[in-house]
Specification:
The complex is a heterodimer of chains A (about 280) and B (about 260). With about 280 residues, chain A is of the alpha/beta class. In chain A, about 35% of the residues lie in helices and about 25% in strands. Chain A has one domain: TIM Barrel (Alpha-Beta Barrel), CATH 3.20.20.70. In chain A, strand 3, helix 1 and strand 4 form a beta-alpha-beta unit. With about 260 residues, chain B is α/β, with parallel strands linked by helices. In chain B, the strands form three sheets. Chain B has a seven-stranded antiparallel beta sheet. In chain B, strands 11-10-9-8-12-13-16 form a seven-stranded mixed beta sheet, with helices on both faces. In chain B, strands 14-15 form a two-stranded antiparallel ribbon. Chain B has two domains: about 90 residues, Elongation Factor Tu (Ef-tu), domain 3, CATH 2.40.30; about 150 residues, Nucleotide-binding domain of ferredoxin-NADP reductase (FNR) module (Rossmann fold, 3-Layer(aba) Sandwich), CATH 3.40.50.80. The chains are: A alpha/beta (about 280), B alpha/beta (about 260). At the A-B interface, strand 5, strand 6 and helix 8 of A face strand 14 of B. The complex binds flavin-adenine dinucleotide (FAD), flavin mononucleotide (FMN) and FE2/S2 (inorganic) cluster (FES). The site of FE2/S2 (inorganic) cluster has 12 residues of chain B, from loops. Chain B: Keywords: 2Fe-2S, Electron transport, FAD, Flavoprotein, Iron, Iron-sulfur, Membrane, Metal-binding, Transmembrane, Transmembrane helix, Transport.
């Protein structure tokens, strides 16, 4: 099969497993891990994070709100004990990194040099952490500085994961000018659901994913493909080959599958084969 | 998720159903305490498959015993013989099966669902056992004659319409003044679990609590089914449970 290029990253197919939706592969069928074009790790921070108290999930019509809060083991445990296993699955590994400050992002990038990962996905779009994350996405100049400095220390593939809210095209253009090789479009939408519990109503704030967001992110990909030259990696509500195909039609070069894998761990393979069938039918 | 045919569905009361499925792959592997995820609707609404304990396994069939709570379970309750559902599992850790008993099993309401399979296994292994089964009212007691054949049974209802009047935890406390089991395993509403946890903790008996949480993946992918751990951090009910050792759980955070 011809390889697909996203900047310096070569993929055997356009499907990537989205950050935070496949654990570290422990319980996913091997065929799914081996069959993906690339694997994007859970968001990794400089130090371990416990994540948010429950509730962390709530369901909305065709959607899922999560507020995991970036629970992760931190850079050193990830690099020493987890990354080697991820690399053994075969597809290139892209590490999703989240710093609370520019300095933390840089230390993460430096810390991952030479560890075997093919790329970094800079997470400036997590809606579930107080510092860093989505705050960066309000500030195109800050993103320019951040990406430029990461580019100086990280020689491999470099993607920026955009938030779908805020000055999205300005942020995308800033990332492009600063030397990013691809843009992941996009993370979850800040959202809220009112949970009814025994004790009364409760607000659950988090990021919305799943089929509910597909038309929104599809529009975003369509718009961005007209404003930036960088390859776009679509991500938002893909649960079928048809969804993926629509994103490719709207200008995406590759795509990520997130929530669909939670619903059914074999969904990524099904999506790929449905996409293949669509491509064959023209 | 794999397709499974509905063999039959039986209504067991106002809001309770017993759903029997032809699912050889699941039936072959399932152990007591494990759960499956079911989805019985086309499209993406509801989005998440719903988790249910494996209630019983017979040959290639599994059944789940459930209470109608919201949209998903209401849709399930309309299933008829021959309909197709999607099933995922078995998932989660099986309940511990000690070599020596007695094991006291404490069920609150629909929390009885995983215990039929479990008591059957204890019986088959010759482990002494007793079921304490509490419900609101007579009509909420499910599969009583079947359970009575598997284990000595103490029933409580809140309104006194069957068994002893009161809470199942009161019956447990009282029994503990006279005897000591080797292990306690409880499944039920959070308030009951935390009461069982306190009573059993004071008595110093090895205890497991079967927890519930909203689940998106059922297999450790999303980190969504978090419950506070007693010594900090969060345990993931789908992979570390559903039954978790009492010492792991922060009882105050359960309710
Ligand atoms: C491991 C496991 C095993 C289970 N086994 C059984 C079983 O054997 N039998 C059985 O009847 N049930 C069982 N359950 C519970 C069952 O999964 C739920 O009752 C079911 O998912 C409800 O789906 P629904 O669509 O009908 O209700 P929903 O509409 O999804 O909601 C049901 C209730 O949950 C509450 N709720 C929804 N989202 C949240 C949230 N984020 N935080 C807090 N509360 C929320 C709602 O307020 C509502 O009261 C089990 C659950 C788990 C985790
Ligand atoms: C449970 C969960 C955890 C996630 N964790 C991360 C994360 O750590 N880093 C990140 O950049 N995105 C994270 N995401 C966002 C997904 O990678 C993806 O961008 C988003 O869910 C939209 O795609 P989907 O609709 O296909 O799920 C998470 C999403 C979910 C549902
Ligand atoms: S439900 Fe996803 S980790 Fe438990």
């Amino acid at each position: 099969m011809p390889l697909l290029s996203l900047g310096s990253l070569k993929l055997k197919n356009p499907l990537m497993l989205a950050s935070g939706t496949w654990g570290f592969g422990e319980t996913l069928p091997q065929e799914v891990l081996k069959g993906a074009g690339a694997l994007v790790s859970k968001g990794i921070s400089l130090f371990p994070r416990e994540g948010n108290p429950p509730p962390r999930l709530s369901e909305t019509p065709c959607g899922l709100i999560n507020s995991i809060g970036l629970e992760n083991p931190g850079l050193s445990v990830f690099r020493e004990r987890i990354l080697p296993r991820l690399l053994s699955y075969g597809p290139p590994v892209v590490v999703n990194i989240l710093g609370e400050s520019e300095e933390e992002f840089l230390r993460l990038a430096e810390g991952l040099c030479g560890a075997g990962a093919s790329g970094l996905e800079v997470n400036i779009s997590c809606p579930n952490v107080k510092k860093g994350g989505i705050a960066f996405s309000q500030d195109p100049e800050g993103v320019f500085r951040l990406v430029k400095r990461i580019r100086e220390v990280w020689k491999g593939f470099l993607a920026v994961k955009l938030s779908p809210v805020g000055p999205v095209s300005e942020v995308a253009q800033a990332a492009e000018e600063a030397g990013a090789e691809a843009l992941t479009c996009a993370n979850t939408y800040p959202a809220l659901s009112v949970i009814r519990e025994g004790k009364g109503p409760r607000f659950h704030l988090g990021g919305l994913s799943g089929p509910a967001i597909k038309p929104l992110t599809l529009r975003l990909v369509y718009e961005l493909s007209r404003r930036v030259k960088l390859p776009l990696i679509a991500c938002g509500g893909i649960v079928s080959g048809r969804d993926a195909w629509e994103y490719l039609l709207c200008g995406a070069r590759a795509f990520q599958v997130g929530t669909a894998t939670l619903l059914d761990p074999r969904a990524p393979l099904r999506i790929l084969s449905e996409l293949d069938a669509l491509a064959k039918d023209g | 998720m794999i397709p499974a045919k509905v063999i039959r569905q039986k209504r067991l009361g106002e809001e309770y159903f017993l759903l029997e499925l032809e699912a050889p792959e699941v039936a072959e592997k399932a152990l007591p305490g494990q759960f499956v995820r079911l989805s019985a609707w086309p499209g993406n609404d509801p989005l998440l498959p719903r988790p249910f304990s494996v209630h019983e396994v017979e040959g290639a069939r599994i059944s789940v015993l459930y209470q109608v709570r919201g949209r998903g379970t209401r849709i399930l309750s309309a299933l008829r013989r021959g309909d197709e559902v999607k099933v995922d599992g078995p998932l989660g850790r099986p309940f511990p099966v000690p070599d020596a008993g007695p094991v006291w099993v404490i069920a609150g309401g629909i929390g009885v669902a995983p215990f039929l399979f479990y008591l059957e296994t204890l019986k088959a292994r010759g482990v002494p056992r007793r079921l304490f089964y509490g419900a609101r009212s007579r009509g909420d007691l499910l599969r009583i004659s079947r359970l009575a054949r598997l284990s000595p049974l103490i029933v409580t209802t809140e309104d006194g319409s069957a068994g002893r009047r009161g809470l199942v935890t009161e019956a447990l406390s009282e029994a503990l003044t006279r005897e000591r089991p080797a292990m306690i395993l409880a499944c039920g509403p959070p308030a009951m679990l935390s009461a069982v946890g306190r009573i059993a903790g004071e008595a110093g008996i090895p205890t497991w609590l079967s927890l519930e949480a909203v689940m998106a993946c059922g297999r450790g992918l999303c980190l969504g089914c978090a419950v506070p751990r007693r010594d900090g951090g969060y345990l993931k009910v789908c992979v570390e449970g559903p039954a978790v050792g009492l010492r792991e759980v922060d009882l105050d955070a359960l309710t």
